[in-house]
Amino acid sequence: MQAEDPSDADRYRAPALDKGLDILELLAEQKDGLTRAEITKSLGRNASEMYRMLERLVARQYVVRSPAGDRYSLSLKLYALAHRHPPMNRLITEALPVMQRFADRAEQSCHLATYDRGNLLVIAQVDGPGTWGISVRLGARIGLIDTGSGRVTLAFQSAEQRAHMLAEHTQVKGETALDPVALESAYARIRADGFLHKESQQTFGVMDVSFPLLGPSGQAVATLTCPFLRRIDEYVAPSLDDVSAMLGEAAAALSMYREPELNSVVEVDG
C-alpha cells in the first residue's frame, strides 16, 4: 500500500472533526476526567472552540460532565459502539460460552485479547467459579511485549505484520522492555510449540497460559489466555497441564469459528 502523500492529508483536513477526536483521545487517558481549562491547555486550543466542541460531545453522549459540572470524562458510548461492530460482536458472542465452559472445568479465569493500535485490548473475560482468583479487567489495554497474550499474538504474525505492530507499540504502565533478539527467539519457540507457558511479569505466582486463534494464513486474530493460579491447600484442582489441555481445546473450538472480516481460522482435520 502506498504511503499517504502529506499534501493529501492537508487537502482532506477536517479541523472540527480533528478537534473532537483530539478531545476524545485526551479524555481516554484520564481516569478522573479534566476541566475545560485543562483540556484547553493540553490541546493548545482557545477556550471558545473547546466550549462549543465539548457541548456537542456532551449532547451526543460521547462525553459526560461530573455531578458538579466542572469536569469532563468519556462516557461508555464509544465502548458500546465498538461492541456493536458486527465482526467483533460475533467473535465475542461465539467466544463467551466456550470461555465459560473452560472456566468452569479448569476452575480458572480466562480472557480474550486482540491487537489494537500498538497494544492488546481485552475484549472478553470470564471469572473462574471459585471464591478467589485473578482476572484481567474487560476493556483493559495490556502490554504487547511482556505478556503471554502479546508474545503469542506477535509470534503468529508474518515478519512484516510483526514489524508493523512493534513499530506502533507504545509501552503501557509498568511494561518491561526486552531485547529484540531474545524476543525473536521466543517467537520461534512459541510457533514451534503452538502455545506459551510463561511466568507472569506482572504478578508473582501466576503462570500465563496462552493459545492463538489463527486465521487461514496462520496469523493470530486474537489470543486466549488463562492466568493460572496453583492451589496449595488440600483441595485438588486441575493441574497446569490439565488446564493447558482444556485451554487448547477452547482455542481450537474458537478457531473453527468462521468470520471472513476477522480472517478466522480454518478447521483442523482430525
From TrEMBL:
Pfam families: HTH_IclR, IclR_C. Residues 14-76 form the HTH iclR-type domain. The keyword Transcription applies. One of its GO terms (biological process) is negative regulation of DNA-templated transcription. One of its GO terms (molecular function) is DNA-binding transcription factor activity. Residues 77-260 form the IclR-ED domain. Keywords: DNA-binding, Transcription, Transcription regulation. It comes from the Bacteria. The keyword Cell division does not apply. PANTHER family: HELIX-TURN-HELIX TRANSCRIPTIONAL REGULATOR, ICLR FAMILY, HTH-TYPE TRANSCRIPTIONAL REGULATOR KDGR-RELATED. This is Transcriptional regulator, IclR family.
